[in-house]
Design goal:
It contains five helices and no strands. The chain is mainly α and about 160 residues long.
Length: about 160
């Protein structure tokens, strides 16, 4: 369904909606840290569903935009660059930011040398969700630039 929708509509306009959905879920995950245990569990789960729906939507749309706009002669070369920016950078920068937020909130990080590391419960600081929600909102600031460059590329073709 998402593929047909994104092919019929402007992907960048859909990306606004997807980013707002993902950010709303993340910010709600941050906000629902008060109340009874049951309320927190249910509200966190619902917020997580909203966030993951937005995340899947954002990922699919960004992938489609990249797939639709490569230079004809260099399409294969750009796939490696796409992997660097969509996998490598987030896997390095994301944990660095998360660890900094956890340290600032005095959340103990798991001991990597402990044999119990994989079985020990680890609850991150709620600020991680707020930081992620704000970061996703930064995508909205980049979308007009992307739309302008897409429009310019289509008029040059």
């Amino acid at each position: 369904y998402l593929t047909r929708l994104s092919d019929k509509m402007n992907k960048i306009k859909l990306l606004y909606f997807a980013a707002i959905t993902m950010s709303a879920g993340l910010i709600a995950m941050y906000l629902f840290k008060f109340g009874s245990h049951t309320f927190k569990l249910v509200s966190f789960g619902v917020s997580g569903c909203v966030m993951i729906t937005g995340y899947i939507f954002v990922s699919a749309l960004v992938g489609a935009i990249v797939r639709d706009n490569p230079p004809a002669a260099d399409a294969g070369k750009l796939q490696g660059i796409r992997m660097i920016f969509s996998v490598l950078v987030p896997m390095i920068v994301g944990p660095m930011i998360g660890n900094a937020i956890n340290r600032a909130a005095n959340i103990p990080l798991p001991d990597a040398s402990s044999p119990d590391m994989m079985t020990t419960a680890y609850i991150p600081a709620p600020g991680i969700y707020l930081a992620a929600g704000i970061t996703v909102l930064l995508l909205i600031g980049v979308l007009p630039i992307l739309a302008k460059s897409q429009k310019k590329a289509s008029t040059n073709s």
